[in-house]
């Protein structure tokens, strides 16, 4: 390793302050510049001058940038950084508009830059361990992925509904866990809290590899639940991302040698179950380490902008499905409908 990477951060609001804290603690990286038109309300970077805009951030001489400005500004800021040759991690979602997301993803790919999207839920210790176990073949063929993300209305004022705010995480992590994008979605949503946007949604999906998915998302439940269940031929893995717990339930029949007449019917029975103890690191710290490693040549654990684009597209398909009452297909080249 040579000298430390020089990092810049634009946006010092609710997420920006957490990015600042993690960048300041990140090994191999120096946070050298921050920018926010409104100053530093949380005192996230007391030792640094608060620059006015992305141009000033670039002028500070940075290797990479973290973008935590409101979503409507993502395109302009990200495109300016791409033109300047700066590797960039953009907070989720990549953009609200599919055209803008496509433009951003393409710009970074064509410039040969590392571009990533900050889907923090992927970095939950339970999901990281789950993904690794699935990749290692613990479940064999994947049949179904079910997620439940339920709780009370968030204190932060959201200018969007649950699909763009919360379900976007589940759509991203499901495609990632299965390593397959969505082929189609069917959704039903409702508004129960008097707000303009939907506050409860149920999504049924199918991934390109044939995996079926189901997602329950709302902010109307008087309890908090964050669960991902992946069922495959050899059993099921259950990730409780609130507590960072991962449990495996073995299919007791999976290893049985069935004689010829029974070979066509593969049964399932309850086998052993085991809960794994996990290293519980803050997910945002893992996300920053993964992006630093990507700049240094190992891009195996980042959410690429192309993946971020697919998630934006899937979110739009979910909203369209709920609005029109039809199943929406994402098939076609790069998921074009």
Give me the strand/helix succession: EHEEHEHEHEHEHEEEEEEEHHE
Low-confidence sequence ranges: 333-337
Question: How many structural domains?
Answer: 2
Strand content: 25-35%
- CATH fold field value of the largest domain: Dihydrodipicolinate Reductase, domain 2
Structural class: alpha/beta
The strand line-up of the biggest sheet is: 14-13-12-11-7-10-9-8-15
- Shape designation: globular
Count of distinct strands: 15
CATH superfamily of the largest domain: Dihydrodipicolinate Reductase, domain 2
Using the coordinates above, name the CATH class of the largest domain.
Alpha Beta
For the sheet with most strands, the description reads: 9 strands, mixed
Question: What portion of residues is helical?
Answer: 25-40%
Q: Compute the gyration radius: what is it? A: 21 Å
The number of distinct helices, counting runs of at least 4 residues, comes to: 8
Mean pLDDT: 93
Instruction: Give the CATH architecture of the largest domain.
Output: 2-Layer Sandwich
């Amino acid at each position: 390793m040579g000298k430390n990477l020089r990092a810049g951060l634009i946006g010092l609001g609710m997420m920006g302050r957490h990015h600042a804290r993690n960048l300041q603690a990140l090994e191999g990286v120096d946070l050298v510049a921050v920018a926010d038109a409104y100053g530093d309300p949380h005192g996230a970077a007391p030792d640094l001058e608060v620059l006015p805009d992305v141009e000033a951030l670039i002028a500070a001489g940075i290797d990479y940038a973290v973008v935590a400005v409101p979503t409507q500004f993502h395109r302009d800021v990200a495109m300016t950084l791409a033109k300047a040759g700066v590797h960039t991690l953009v907070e989720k979602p990549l953009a609200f508009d599919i055209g803008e997301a496509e433009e951003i993803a393409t710009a970074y790919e064509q410039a040969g830059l590392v571009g990533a999207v900050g889907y923090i839920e992927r970095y939950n210790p339970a999901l990281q361990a789950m993904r690794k176990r699935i990749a290692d073949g613990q479940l064999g063929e994947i049949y179904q992925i079910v997620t439940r993300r339920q709780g009370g209305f968030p204190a932060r004022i959201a200018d969007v509904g649950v699909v763009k705010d919360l379900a976007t995480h589940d759509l991203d992590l499901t495609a990632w866990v299965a390593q397959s994008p969505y082929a189609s979605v069917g959704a039903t949503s409702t508004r129960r809290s008097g707000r303009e946007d939907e506050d409860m949604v149920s999504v049924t999906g199918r991934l390109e590899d044939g995996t079926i998915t189901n997602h329950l998302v709302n902010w109307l439940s008087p309890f908090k639940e964050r669960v991902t269940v992946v069922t495959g031929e050899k059993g099921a893995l259950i990730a409780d991302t609130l507590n960072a717990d991962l449990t495996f339930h073995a299919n007791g029949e999976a290893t049985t040698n069935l004689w010829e007449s029974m070979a066509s019917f593969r049964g399932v029975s309850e086998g052993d179950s085991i809960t794994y103890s996990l290293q519980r690191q803050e997910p945002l710290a893992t996300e920053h380490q993964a992006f630093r490693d990507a700049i240094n040549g190992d891009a195996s654990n980042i959410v690429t902008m192309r993946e971020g684009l697919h998630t934006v597209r899937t979110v739009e398909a979910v909203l369209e499905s709920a609005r029109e009452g039809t199943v929406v297909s994402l098939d076609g080249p790069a998921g074009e409908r």
